[in-house]
Request: fold
Amino acid sequence: MRKIASGFLAILVACAVLAGPLPAINATTPSLPAIWITPDQSFTTSTPVGTSFVETVCAGVASGQDAFTYQVNVTYDPTMLNATSVKYTAPSGSLWWSAHSTTRVNPVINRTSGLIVLGETLFAPDFEPGPSSGSICNITFAIIATPTAGHNFTCKIDAHQPKGSYILDPTLTLIAPLSFQAA
Reply:
């Protein structure tokens, strides 16, 4: 048995070495409770229209906080970006709550206003005890406009609370204050 285990470990190490280094991702977790978007992306004037990139929406709660439901509203500038797809990070919902039975809201993309809405809830009396955090969804964007030479523009992708993002506890009380981090 020890020989099989050491053989498996050798194969695992070899695979890790052959795979090479993983790409660096801005995985800074803000103070919990929080909803954040990662990684930060930056593009230059030489980035062609049609270039796609993926942003991941994450959430989490602090120790002593129990999460039961969330809604995330992501805003972006539709004159610069097109949201081409939104997919939860697990087959049945978010990776954050993949150990639970949940029901989720199919993501809605409003490309005119630049708004994406999605959410998920656990089945009572279940809840996600804090501290915990994880990914919720991946959003694929395509660049539809670039600045003229010598100019820059910024397009903030955000999930801030005034736009309707929240996490509720099992009594349906808002978990606050939430910190938000945009990409």
Observations:
- The CA atoms of residues 108 and 117 lie 5 Å apart.
- Residues 1-26 have pLDDT under 50 and may be disordered.
- The first strand starts at residue 34 and ends at 38.
